[in-house]
Design goal:
Elements lengths: L9 E2 L9 H10 L21 H15 L5 E6 L2 H13 L5 E5 L2 H10 L5 E6 L22 E5 L1 E2 L4 E2 L11 E4 L16 E5 L10 E6 L16 H6 L9 H17 L1 H21 L4 E2 L11 E6 L5 H10 L2 E2 L10 E4 L6 H17 L1
Parallel strand pairs: 1-13, 3-4, 3-5, 5-8, 8-9
Antiparallel strand pairs: 2-10, 6-7, 9-10, 11-12, 12-14
Length: about 375
Amino acid sequence: MMMAKMSCKFNFSAGPAVIPTDVLKKVQSELIDWNGTGMSVMEMSHRSKQYFPVIDEAESNLRLLLGIPENFKVLFLQGGAITQNFMVPMNLLNDRTASYVVSGYWSKRTFDDAKPFNGINLSATSEPIDYKKAPQSSEWNYAKDDAYLHYCLNETIHGVEFFDVPIIEDIPLVCDMSSNILSRPIDIKSYGVIYASAQKNIGPAGLTLVIVRDDLIDVANKKIPTTFNWKIQAANNSMINTPATFSIYIAGLVFKWILARGGLEFMEEENIKKANELYNFIDSSDFYYNDTDISNRSRMNVPFRIANDNLTSQFVTEAEENGLYGLKGHRLVGGLRASIYNAMNIDGVKALINFMHRFEKNN
C-alpha cells in the first residue's frame, strides 16, 4: 500500500546534524555582509577587530548557558572530539596513570586511542552486555593517584546516556559531552575537563569545545606541540593558528538561540518530551523494539530495530521518500536510529512516529 508523502522534511542524522532554522536564516542574511563590514565572516581575518566580537560573545554566552566559573578556561579548537583522545593524555597524564570507563563504541575508541600512552587502565566496561546498560559509577575502579578518570556522557551509536553526575572527589573527572552538551543543565564544577565536538548540538563540523579547570591547564609535558597544548591555546585565545572562524560564528548564534528559548532548563524539558514520546511509541509496539536499559536510554540518540530485520532497508527507503532522513543505524550495529538533538522539534518526532505507525500497519 502506498503512503501519502509528507511535505515537511526532517533530518535525524547523528552528525553533522540539524541546525536550528532560525540560525540558518540568520546566517543566510549575514552571509555576504556581516554587521555592515561588507565581508562574510568566512573571509574575515581571525585577528581583525571585526572578528574579535564574534568569538568573545560566543564564549560569553556559552559561559552564561553552562554557568562556567571563572576558574575554567574555554577553548575553541579543531580536530573533532577524536583529537582530544590523545590531547587529553598529552595534557594531563605526564608519566602518571589514568582510568577509562567504557560504555559504548566511542568511549571504547577513546580508551583504545589512549592506550599508546603508558599507564592507561580500564575502569569499567559494559562491552560484555553489548552496551545495553552503562557501568554504574559505584562500579568504577580507579587509583587515587590517577591523573584523571575519563567517561563519555552519551553514546550516539548504542543510545546510552548517563544522567547522574558521578561523585569523584579524589581525581579530576574528564568527560566527552559531544552528543548531549547543551541539552540539559550540567554542574561544571564536578568536572576537571569537558570536551565536545560541535556537529550535534552546537553547530557545523570543524569546531571542538574544551572547558578545562585552571589547575589542570599547566600539567602538560613541555614537549607537547604548541597547537596541542591547552595552556598555550588558552594564552592565545584559541588562536595559536587560524581557528574554525565560521563554525565559531554559527556556534555563537546557536548559543543565542538557546538563551532566547529559555536556556538549558527549557531545552531539557523539550528533550524529555521528545524522547518520551518516541520511546513510548516504540515500547507500545511489537513491530519495533529498543533493548537499552530504561535507566540509560539516551534522550539524544534513539536506536531501534524492526522485529523483522528484513524490513529495515525498506523502512529507510520509504522514510526518505516521506522526507525523513538519516534514520539508518550506524554501520557497526545496523538497525535504525533517530537522533533528536536540540534543533529537532517535536513536529519532527511526531512525523516520525506517524510514519512508523503507517509502516507497521502496511507491513
